[in-house]
Amino acid sequence: MIRTAQHRLAQRATSINEAVTLAIAAEAKRMQAAGIPVISLSTGEPDFPTPQIIKEAAFDAINSNFTKYTQAEGIPELRKAVAEKFTAENGIPTEAQQVLISCGGKHCLFNALAAIVNQGDEVVIPSPYWTSYPEMVKLVGGTPVLVEAGYESGYRMTPDQLRQAITPRTRAMIINSPTNPTGVVYSRQEMEAFAEVIAKAGIYVLSDELYEKITYDGNQHVSIGSFPQLRNLALTINGVSKAFSMTGWRIGYMCGPSDVIAAAGKIQGQSASNPVSVSQKAALAALTIPEVADDVKKMGEAFLRRRDLIVELLQAIPGVRFHIPGGAFYIFLNVAQFYNEQIPDSAALAGYLLREHLVATVPGSGFGDDHAIRLSYACAEADIREAVKRIGEGLASLQR
Which pLDDT value is given to residue 327? Predict the structure, then answer.
């Protein structure tokens, strides 16, 4: 019986926070719709159109009436293509039955956590982290254990830190490389050291690899699931959103031990039925049509130019500190030195920049580090120039 207002919602709903990235982006769009010239550096998605050849595959699916339910775990031809991709590109020997297609990488991660985490289990998460990781762990009844890897360490967790965070209650860890929000790309040596710790502890590792195609300066993406000692412990999560500019198509995929994938598939079948049929055909085109690689290459080259531009512009602002990202498309800007009584934290600073200087950024508190704000350079170079100019003016005003 619902007796009072506080009983109207379940504890799982009241115990989690809103996705700060989506909230800021929504506010920026609201202001833009009202005619306010906001420039958004808050968006976590490529600004390029989905490649035409992928869209044509979707049109073909619609025109051939491929618009019904599909298998809960994804259509067989897409699962096969994903298995071949993991095997050839990531060094993870994978069969089709070890693949689950879901409604985005986020959905894969949630399904995986729901399949392996029991009430009270601990999940280790390096911090800064993508904003949804701790909330998802809490949603499935787990306890997030945050490992601080701050500015002074280059935002890089060490194997010793991981080892010290593991307890008898640890069930899994989440690793993300290239990393959102910091742009860190872990090396093969670092990944192998993490793999040794994970294998010795006998815990699962969930590897979020959505940004694998976006790396710079010779950094090479390494899948932690490629190390043989993790063959039965690694769940590798990816999708088409970032690499192919398909965020709205909502297709993610993962591979892992057959029993975990089957369990995650059951959870998906009871909660979402299946991924969108048309989107699956589009994802199949993205993964199998060779010409798509040219589009991916061009997008990567554009991101490199934008990264170099925003780095150059930010380096000219007195007082800001940041590490040059090795991957993804974010700058995690350390701005704590600009805080004052009126602007005491990253949320206040992000709000100030949005209201007073019409630039949307994301407060670092949403990523576990209140000393910073996240800037996305997934936008036009002209917007980057103007946005950084406004940020510089806004920060300078705080020091007067």
Answer: 99
Residues of the chain with CATH 3.90.1150.10: 5-49+293-398
Mode of pairing for the β-strands spanning 330-334 and 372-376:
antiparallel
Place 26 in a pLDDT band, splitting at 50, 70 and 90.
Answer: confident
In which region does residue 219 sit, left (phi positive, over 0), alpha (psi from -120 to 50) or beta (all else)? beta
Strands 39-40 and 143-148: unpaired
Q: What is the CATH number of domain 5-49+293-398?
A: 3.90.1150.10
- DSSP secondary structure of 202-255: T-EEEEE-TTTT-B-TT-----GGGSGGGTTTEEEEEESTTTTT-GGG--EEEE
Which segments of the chain does DSSP mark as H helices, in order? 11-14, 20-33, 52-63, 76-90, 105-116, 132-139, 159-165, 188-201, 258-271, 277-288, 292-315, 346-357, 381-398
Domain boundaries 68-289, CATH class: alpha beta
Mean pLDDT of 35-55: 96
148 strand-pairing partners: 127
Mean pLDDT of the chain: 96
d(CA 218, CA 160): 26
Q: What is the pLDDT of residues 325-372, one digit of tens each?
A: 999 999 999 999 999 999 999 999 999 999 999 999 999 999 999 999
In this prediction, residue 362 carries a pLDDT of 97
- Residue range(s) occupied by CATH 3.40.640.10 in the chain: 68-289
What dihedral angle (degrees, nearest 10) is formed by the CA atoms of 356, 359, 365, 367? 180
Q: Is the pTM of this model over 0.85?
A: yes
C-alpha–C-alpha distance, residues 379 and 169, integer Å? 43
Burial-class residue 221 by CB neighbours within 10 Å (0-12, 13-18, 19+). Answer: buried
Cβ atoms of 79 and 101 closer than 8 Å: yes
Q: Give the integer Cα–Cα distance in Å for 181 and 388.
A: 18
User: pLDDT at residue 2 above 70?
Assistant: no
pLDDT in tens, 125-148: 999 999 999 999 999 999 999 999
CA 123, CA 165: separation in Å to the nearest integer?
10
Q: Which two tokens stand for residue 68?
A: 């019904």
